[in-house]
Amino acid sequence: MDNLPMQSIVFIYQDGGVETVPITHFPHHLDSLQNNLEKMPRFANLCYKYKFAFHEYVNYMPIVSTLAKEGIVSLINFNLRDIVNDPSLLNCDLPGIEVYLPHDFGSLRQLEHIEKLLVYYPEDRLSFNHYQGIEFKEKTTLEIAEFVRTWKNNFDEKHTL
Known about the structure:
Blueprint (H helix, E strand, L loop, with lengths): L6 E6 L5 E5 L6 H8 L4 H10 L10 H9 L3 E5 L2 H6 L11 E5 L6 H13 L5 E6 L4 E4 L1 H13 L8
Parallel strand pairs: 4-5
Antiparallel strand pairs: 1-2, 1-3, 3-4, 5-6
Helix pairs in contact: 5-6
């Protein structure tokens, strides 16, 4: 998850593995994903499993929902279009990150990535959404921090937000 502001999308898998899609000249997340698919073997396998057709999606929510069902955390760069149009914006402020959390975490390593995000990224630039069956519910940073702490302390038990 190095250099988070320069990533358009980050996926954190159940075992803590990470795949990133760097910001390119494409102003849309899905175009970046399609362009980088061959560099992301785990995500590519999911695409083939679910037969994602990128051109059919107006935004990234169908993909994010499917990944949440698989237990994968998705980080979406909220200011991607602005950064593509004017990269000097990164000198002024960090982009906003939309964080989509699955219902269940798969490993302590996955939780540690979220914990790092909570510690090192400005709170006002984060927006957390937690998957609850059929939809996402927005959560505060404090709720997520407590949720992560509880999961880490009792990882073998199930906890819900």
